[in-house]
Amino acid sequence: MPRTAAPTLNSPSPSPSPSRIPRAADPDRRRTSASVVLRSVLEHGPVARSTIARLTGLSPASVTDYCARFSELGLIREAAAPRRSNGVGRPHVPVDLDDSRFVVGGVHVAVPYTTVALLDLRGRVVARRELKHERTDPGAVLARAADGLGALLHEAPGCRPLGVGVAIGGWVDRESGTVVEHPLLGWRDVAVREIVGEHTGLPVHVDGHARALVNGERLFGLGRGSGSVLHLFVGNVVDAAFATNDEVHHGPRSQAGTIAHLPVPGGTERCDCGRIGCLQAELSERTLCRRAREAGITEGVNPLHVVAAAAGGDPKAVRLLVERARAIGRAVRLLLDVLNPETVVVTEVGIIHRADCLRALREGVGDERAVSVVPTSFPDSVLAVAGGSVALDVLYRDPLAASPEAI
Ligand SMILES: [Zn+2]
Question: Region annotation Disordered: residue ranges (predicted)?
């Protein structure tokens, strides 16, 4: 992968900045102010600086300084058609994200394949590729992912990478950038950040995929503006993540959201742990595909083939997907009782593609809270968005850590 002199997330070098942004007497406040200004541009742009000041409660002078800094960094630009110039600082000229310069790399490692992608600063997928696993040992999978990202960057000259986000199921410790355990892949204590960093020469951030997607929803999707968001991921891995007041709960060693062995009411599948009806055993795509094979619907292990059979009018496939969605709804109900989030986002293949599955999901929830349960905001690109969201969350939390050297 080419090593460019691009600015990077979390660059260690503080800048010799001409900005009037207050120096680091209160770094947390400075970081928070920078974050709310850039988030404001993301959510409302093109937007006048005076409006950002009103929305954020920061002083107009302070907003002007942060915007000047972001312009230097290449993160924002003045919108093409300024309404009116108003002297120094020009607070009425709208600013918008500059989505033409930078991308982040995203890697999502699933059980059968890895998705690599480039995302722009708005969380949109610029390019992506799926790499079917030839081997599942971590060294091979991660080296191939790095090569895949390198190829995407090579094909997109002009896109400069700020960093790489890696999203993966299982137990992921964000602080150390390590996959502690991923039983379905057979991974244990894999130093993902280190390995991908060595291969790409870029800063790498690693998180669990449910947490990655809750951040994607907060920043770019339906979770935007919601006080609390729960994301439930139902693939081969089943896990959850919860964000409140813009913070995703990790818990000690990032173990929050491990719900694979939560019992599903009415479950019948035997789990590896020895119990019957655990969430992951009951609802995983493996189980869906096995049931589809038993019913003579499909022969393979691809859940999209079950969706295709349902779309083609196979009533058994429809029933399988709808029953699964209803069971997911019952699981959501348990989580609603515990966490009471304003919004619940579910990523699951049937619910993404079929209105009857969404209806069944809400029936499974079974009360008025069902209306707060919605499908993923990224139906066509969820795995591509997951990896990139890990890196974009870092950018939007601490935008001034992006180094300006190359600008
Ligand atoms: Zn179990």
Answer: 1-32
